[in-house]
Amino acid sequence: MAKRFASGTAALSGLDLAVEAGEFLSLVGPSGCGKSTALRLIAGLTQPSEGSVRWDGKTQPPRAGDIGFVFQEATLMPWARVLANVTLPLKLAHLGRGEAEDRAREALSLVGLAGFEHAFPRELSGGMRMRVSIARALVMRPRLLLMDEPFAALDEITRLKLNDDLLALWAERNLTIIFVTHSVYESVYLSSRVAIMAARPGRIVEDRALPAAYPRDAAFRHGADYGAACAEISAALGRAMAA
Amino acid sequence: MTRLAQWLLPALVGVVALGCWEAAIHILEVPPYIVPAPSRIALALVQDWDVLGPALVYTLKIAALSLLAAILGGGALALLFARSPLIERSLLPYAIILQVTPIVAIAPLIIIWVDDTTAALLICAWIVAFFPILSNTTLGLNSADRNLGELFRLYGASRWQTLRYLRLPSALPYFLAGVRISGGLALIGAVVAEFVAGAGGRESGLAYRILESGYRLDIPRMFAALTLISVAGIAIYGLLAGLSHLLLRRWHESALAREE
User: Fold this and answer.
1) What is the pLDDT of residue A153?
2) A90 domain-assigned
3) Between the ranges A37-46, A158-167, B55-64, where is the mean pLDDT highest?
4) Do residues A94 and A150 share a domain?
5) Is residue A70 part of a domain?
6) Which residues of B fall within a CB distance of 8 Å from A79?
7) Mean pLDDT of the region A131-140
8) Domain span at residue A194?
9) Domain check: are A188 and A162 in the same one?
10) Minimum distance, in Å, between the CA of residue B138 and any CA atom of chain A
């Protein structure tokens, strides 16, 4: 798959990526390597200049709601309460209000925000806003969750907590996640597989499985396996940036 | 600064200024047909209320109706602009021409063309008032968060849904700021147009009363009418600012109390 912008810049070139159901795949790379563009292509928000995105072997895009998207910012509607924000995808799909709100409440309790239904986004902390954003992405019960540096703007403590919660959700919901990050440590902690990208033009240069068993916790984070994997991915990233 | 001081200080300045004015008139023995004392103006306000009251109502009516027309016209045109850049490109230059041409220059024409004075005044006030609403609302409709827009696309939102749930709420603060500006402009438009028209019919507004008092050298009444126009302007602004605060107070940065 390739993507060129109207300006002629080659954002991605020869991108070939197969994602298995149930995987937690991280895309790691220097800024400007087309990680976000890759996510947008997968989401169907932009079309490839060459090649195609295939679903179960078909080029036909999935139905709306099969893909959840979490942006770097929480991207909530500031004028709407938390519940209305999470209900949005269901409302756009013309689901009845009662059922939509039930499902939104369920999604909110899943991310640990039961009781905050009637708050406005600005009344919440950055971490809580991101949780609302994740709840909104989950409310349609997507098969694939795309996350574009979702925790980059959060502080360390909040990020670690959200990492753990995300892993729990992934296991509980049988999600497939494609997670864009620039943090090697975050990618190693979370993913079952890491694809390392290089820039100009954006491409995948290395693709590694991380076989460490789940569930992963603080003990894993402090273990030797984790350190070794981080060193390995960092080295690969170094090569990608030199390439 | 405490809340009390916030109100007290400007009020104190007003009282002191009026007091000085009053004293200066008496000490210097300025005749009321040059500058009347505040007490003389207040007296005129009470004595001439039979004339000034209906004039105030008339001017307010023109301002309110033209503001309403500006909200409807400006809002509808902004929606049309947001719907199609082609329409915006074609019509915007003319909206700008209408805006930058001084109303005093257009008013005589409108008064010639339109027989009914009230209708002519309404048109003049509308011309001044509609542009801020048009330009602000257009800006607001195009200022919706990009990522939210992508999210709407991802979930297959229709054009109507995107307008209803994303672009209109995003435009609301801009629209309300436009309405606030237009409220004052509608009043100015109504007054200026009446000055240009220069004729009082069965009904006439405060501007005509000012002209009339000028001819008669009834300066206290002139000041009284002027006071009423100022008070009306402040009231319109306060009302619209209050409305804006009421609608935005829960979520928009502009309406939130600053925490120290």
Assistant:
1) 86
2) yes
3) B55-64
4) no
5) no
6) 169, 172, 250-252
7) 94
8) 3-62+144-242
9) yes
10) 19
CB contact under 8 A, A71 and B147: yes
- The per-residue pLDDT for range B74-129, each reduced to its tens digit, is 999 999 998 888 999 999 899 899 889 898 888 989 989 998 889 999 999 999 99
Counting Cα atoms < 13 Å in the Cβ hemisphere of A158 gives: 13
State whether A50 and A104 are in the same domain: no
Interface test with A, best of B154, B166, B174, B259 (most A CBs within 10 A): B154
This complex has an ipTM of 0.90
Residues 137-156 on B with a CB inside 8 Å of A are 145, 147-148, 150-156
Contact A75 B157 (CB under 8 A): no
Q: Which domain holds residue B239?
A: 38-43+52-244
pLDDT of residue B260: 40
Return phi, psi of residue A116, to 5°: -105, 15
φ, ψ at A228 (rounded to 5°): -65, -45
The answer to whether residue B126 neighbours chain A at the CB level (below 8 Å) is no
CATH number for B199: 1.10.3720.10
B22 domain-assigned: no
- The bridge status of strand A24-28 relative to strand A193-198 is parallel
Does residue B12 lie in a domain region?
no
* Amino acid B250: pLDDT: 84
Note whether A79 contacts B169, CB cutoff 8 Å.
yes
- Residue A71 placed within a domain: no
Give domain status of residue B189, yes or no.
yes
Chain A touched by B157 (CB under 8 Å): yes
Which residues of chain B neighbour A73 with C-beta distances below 8 Å? 147
Total tally of structural domains belonging to chain A? 2
Residues A49 and A101 in one domain: no
The per-residue pLDDT for range B45-89, each reduced to its tens digit, is 999 999 999 999 999 999 999 999 999 999 999 999 988 889 999
Kindly state whether residues A176 and A208 are assigned to the same domain.
Answer: yes
| A57 lies in the same domain as A82 | no
What CATH number should be reported for the domain holding residue A52? Answer: 3.40.50.300
- Is the predicted pLDDT of residue A217 greater than 90, yes or no? no
CB contact under 8 A, B157 and A79: no
- How many cross-chain Cβ pairs, A to B, lie less than 8 Å apart? 53
